[in-house]
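Example record for the data management plan.
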Amino acid sequence: MKLSIIIPAFNEEKTVEETVKKVKKQKIPGFDKEIILVDDGSSDRTSQILDEIGKKSPGIKVLHHPENRGKGAAVKTGIENATGDYILIQDADLEYDPKYIPSLTTPVFNGEAKVVYGTRLNRMPHLQGEEQSLLFIAHFFGNRMLSLLTSLLYFSWVTDMETCYKLFPKKALEGISLRSRSFNFEPEITSKLLKKGYRIREVNIATKPRGYDEGKKLHTIRDGSIALWTLFKYRFID
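Corresponding structural encoding:
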């Protein structure tokens, strides 16, 4: 089988090169690997860095948006150019460590699942760690609430709907139109996979959350409200 790993990047000059290095060195049993980098109209050196990576590693696909369109749009561009049997999303900011990629692909290789998510939230909050701050405890409980709502609406247990690490077969998208341009890609793809009858297998992962001063782009209230509406919209309207 072939795995297309899509790395969307917007103003990630500090971390994107290291992310790609870590993805490249991962050994994924049972899968050939395709890496697709999508620069989403960055205003820093991300675009140039991706082009340099592409020159050094011709097998890596490098794609550019002329302007910033949002994470969902960047992932969609990656999917449209993917040739793999399976798709995996990898953020460029190193919150998610590529060392977990084989953990996601193993259930697929063993024939135990077709859709696999990496869950950060199948646990209690780290009150002595990052979630002692108001920002991250709000993220924790906001994500848990959205995941519980997903489970109730779609009759399938999910603990981390908002996770970046989503692995699914490309053929699962046949007949599906992905419309989300921003972070509402997460509830949209989850909703549409579940409505097509796919069940989500979750594997536990750990992340290193960064703050807004380090470039974090997700906003709990704004993006959480959009995700809430997206879950209801694709369940009952579209």
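Summary line stored alongside the record: The mean pLDDT is 91.
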